[in-house]
Amino acid sequence: MAPRNKRRILVGTDFSPSAEIAVRRGGAVAQECDGVLEIIHVLSRGDTPVYRVTGWAENRRAVEAEAMRKLRGLASRARARFGISVHPELVRGSPQREIAAYAASIGASLVVVGPNGEHAVRDMLIGSTAQPLQRALRVPLLIARNRLVRAYRRVLVTTDFSRASAEAART
Fold first, then answer.
1. Handedness of CA 161, 163, 34, 85 (dihedral sign)
2. Residue 161 needs a FRET pair 20 to 30 A away by CA distance; which of 10, 16, 41, 167 works?
3. pTM score, two decimals?
């Protein structure tokens, strides 16, 4: 684990092309602020075999091993590309809950996700994981839709004039 004083940028991945964009965007932000990149993948119930099926334990281990192999590959590529510390994390549960809980546990400064999901119309606007995740998080959320062209120069902050909005603007 990296020192607590470094900014931690958390990227949620489902290994899709849009999640790859999120990893690149998160890596660029971590590099810019001399931070640490954390990459999390959440295995949900639908990702692993049901325990009543013969051979379920073996299948579950195989699914977990494959997900960890992919995570380590993403981490290795990000480390090489950005020259930063990168930590992969594999957890089980609901993606929204687990990403929010992990962000809180590591003191993430920012969470980055891609806009993909299973509901095409809604996902075009905000994404199926991103929408409930934004409500669960206590830190800023960046939805990376496009490939990184250059570093951010300006940030647009919207507000509803609440204390939470003021706190988000300070981060």
1. negative
2. 10
3. 0.81
